[in-house]
Amino acid sequence: MSAEETHLEVPKNDLPQARLGWIMACIQTVIYGSFVGTFIVSPATMTRPIAPGMAVTVATVGGLLAILSTMILTGLYVLLANRLTTR
Questions:
Q1: Residue 28's closest CA among 60, 62, 71?
Q2: What pTM did the predictor assign?
Q3: How would you classify residue 49: left for phi > 0, otherwise alpha for psi between -120 and 50, otherwise beta?
């Protein structure tokens, strides 16, 4: 086997993956910024319980949703970037 045969094929144009990464990073920044911004603008909203008598607050649910959105966007990025690479 020659060196040319064992050489792995490198994507010639990684711009679509980079653009996708930046778009998803911006989306996540907006999500997290909204979460933090709500704390800054209206802390009473974030410390309010989800329902009367519950100990779970809006901030708890919002924080969990922010973390979940990060995992979902990461999975989407991997899926879409791999599809762009195999083209």
A1: 71
A2: 0.74
A3: beta
Q: What is the DSSP letter of 80?
A: H
Residue written as tokens 């490198």? 10
The tens digit of pLDDT for each residue in 15-42 reads: 788 888 999 999 999 999 999 999 999 9
In DSSP notation, 3-68 reads HHHHPPPPPS--HHHHHHHHHHHHHHHHHHHHHHHHHHH-HHHHHSBSSTT-S-BHHHHHHHHHHH
Residue 53 Ramachandran class (φ > 0 left, ψ -120 to 50 alpha, else beta): left
> How far, in Å, CA of 53 to CA of 70, rounded?
30
State the Cα–Cα distance between residues 41 and 70, nearest whole angstrom: 23
